[in-house]
Here is the input.
Amino acid sequence: KQKRDEEQKKLLQELKGKENITLDGTKINVFANISGIDNIGAVLLNDAGGIGLFRSEFLYLGREDYPSEEEQFEIYKEVLSRMEGKKVIIRTLDIGADKQVDYFKLPKEENPAMGYRAIRICLDRIDVFKTQLRAIYRASVYGTAAIMFPMIISVKEILRIKEIVEEVKAELTAAGIEIAPVELGIMVETPAAVMISEELAKEVSFFSIGTNDLTQYTLAIDRQNQSLDTIYDSHHPAVLRMIRMTIENGHKGGAWVGICGELGADTTLTKTFVDMGIDELSVSPTYVLGLRKAIREI
Ligand code: PEP
Ligand code: MG
Here is the structure.
């Protein structure tokens, strides 16, 4: 641990304030993943360019009842304010599967990873979804907010989401509440989303590839099952081709493309991702500077 701490200190001295730029001049955004306000200190210390994944479900976990609009607003406001205009991508609620919340009273499922989770719940429980969207839009004036939606499999879902977003914006505006422009994007973490990524890209501003779930669903290997750890392989050619396809189709449709799954921090693949045309990599705060170093050596 001491050795790791020393390496981290050295990285800080050498690389804080420097650009994420390859030797031939390609710039990549290196952002950080967070699950709450407690992580912001590490994000700032490690000089991340923004937040590429705010796992907002942590606001809903470990409590007895739904977080109110006001509670959520205060948290998004604080994150946006402390990031001082740097982009903050808030992922809407991604519960179900491995993240169970009792007060949602979700039915017991045989196969929860493929079941009632994430956007599927939000498009069913519009009240819960709208509460979160209202809180984010109210906070949007305190910085640069973006929203992304998890577990997308169809264009139809995005069209419905956009209708709901428009309703929320109209309701806030009618109530005299100021809102700022917010970029909308999706997580690409299902093979379905990859295969229709060209169509999806026309509907959103950005894609963020969730390689944890994308590996699970592409290889049909439960990411939670430790006895499968030796064959759960994010470097599988099928996964890498899916990533390439998503980047190419995203760009064709006018969307920028990032990776926020754990694979984004794997520096043995940084050159591969840069060659594929990746625009952003979002990783745990402590990996930001190591990734910057890897990018600057390509
Ligand atoms: C992913 O699936 O890669 C991802 C970033 O989301 P989570 O790990 O929260 O499912
Ligand atoms: Mg995921």
About this structure: DSSP finds twelve helices and eight strands in the chain. The first helix runs from residue 2 to 15. The CA atoms of residues 153 and 193 lie 5 Å apart.
